[in-house]
Design goal:
- The chain is mainly α and 372 residues long.
- α4 runs parallel beside α14 and α13 packs antiparallel against α16.
- The protein is extended.
Length: 372
């Protein structure tokens, strides 16, 4: 009987007695391993198998992605309810799907801002002016150096200018105005001590352009500690950010998907406290929070795309309006409470969200600057 079956179905001769992945004993009738899900086949990998497996996995993912997006957008709260009730294979993982949606959103937002001609012109205008000014100064200096009286006495214009007191330098704030010795700094508290040192370092760098922390500590007669070196380096970067704020803005925006990823678990904790009497545990609230935030990113992706294609500014406004209604419907469907309770908790939840967002933004800015 088995021989006849092998002649009709050649695949049976490649069925193994054990799973090649987890070594679980298998029967000839087992098409897949019941333990790990790997296909029961001892046949060597060939090109056709690779192509079939690649496209089957691709279409399977696309099918799950389409279903996730459809339910997420048009059935508020349903995908979270299905997921916590065990219907998980039909949907994309909420945490990975959040990261994918957030990264795509920030990429689209960055592209739409970068390709606006007016913005690029405004960003480059100051830089071009500075370059032109430097070129003019260099040309003027080279011409003035050819003045016979200066050339005869071997006097360079730049050395002559340096010997003349500059009114601009006199009006600039000097580090000497706030300078304190190491002993004086040690007598102050921790916050004032480091704030004063940062101000001194910042002003000293502006005056000297000294990039070596060790040389700066020697000149300022401060202790050569790792903390002082780090603080001096941050004062240099603060000067860079102060003159070029877009550099830090781009850096901070690139980290926002991961900042929000760690912010949402804190927000889910407050949702759990708000629905403490309900039968949901913390992880179920967290899944709901990630699905809602993912929806916001998807709506923003659509809104930004509309604004970019139509050169309008109503796409994001429409996305915000839709999201307000979407959040209310999600809370109503997922938690199953009445309209009055849902509206009250909706308002309270938004107050909590924006309060936590401000605190998280401040902390994120401090941390981002620390590692910048």
């Amino acid at each position: 009987m088995l021989e006849k079956h092998e002649k009709r179905d050649v695949l049976y001769k490649y069925r193994g007695k054990t799973c090649l992945n987890c070594e679980l004993p298998l029967e000839k009738s087992d098409h897949f391993c019941p333990n790990c899900g790997q296909k029961n086949s001892t046949r060597k990998l060939n090109f056709s198998d690779f192509i079939v497996e690649f496209f089957s996995g691709l279409f399977s993912y696309d099918s799950r992605l389409q279903r996730t997006l459809r339910v997420l957008l048009f059935k508020p709260g349903q995908i979270s309810k299905d997921y916590i009730n065990g219907k998980r294979m039909r949907y994309a993982n909420p945490f990975r799907f959040y990261l994918s949606a957030s990264i795509i959103f920030f990429l689209i937002a960055g592209i739409s801002e970068s390709f606006e001609g007016v913005n690029l012109q405004e960003q480059d205008e100051n830089f071009q002016n500075e370059v032109a000014k430097i070129q003019q100064d260099t040309l003027l200096q080279s011409e003035l150096n050819e003045i016979p009286a200066l050339k005869q006495n071997n006097i360079k214009l730049d050395s002559l200018i340096k010997s003349i007191p500059s009114k601009r330098k006199e009006t600039e704030e000097s580090y000497k105005d706030v300078y304190l010795s190491q002993t004086e700094l040690d007598s102050t508290n921790y916050i004032n001590r480091n704030a004063t040192k940062f101000t001194i370092f910042y002003r000293y760098y502006k005056a000297s352009n000294e990039i070596s922390p060790e040389a700066a500590m020697t000149e300022l007669q401060y202790e050569k500690t790792k903390w002082n070196y780090w603080l001096y380096e941050k004062s240099i970067k603060f000067n860079l950010i102060y003159n070029n704020p877009k550099i830090f803005a781009d850096y901070f925006i690139s980290k926002l998907p991961f900042i929000i990823f760690f912010y949402l678990p804190v927000f889910a904790l407050f949702i759990w406290l708000l629905y403490l009497r309900r039968s949901f545990n913390y992880m179920e609230h967290l899944v709901f929070a990630f699905h809602v935030q993912t929806t916001l990113f998807v709506l923003y992706i659509i809104g930004y795309s509309i604004d970019y294609i139509l050169n309008s500014d109503w796409g994001i406004a429409l996305a915000n309006t839709v999201f307000i209604f979407y959040l209310y419907k999600s809370m109503r469907n997922f938690y199953g409470q009445g309209r009055v309770k849902t509206v009250l908790k909706f308002v309270l939840l938004n107050i909590i969200f924006f309060t936590l967002a401000i605190i998280a933004a401040i902390i994120a800015l401090i941390v981002s600057f620390s590692i910048f």
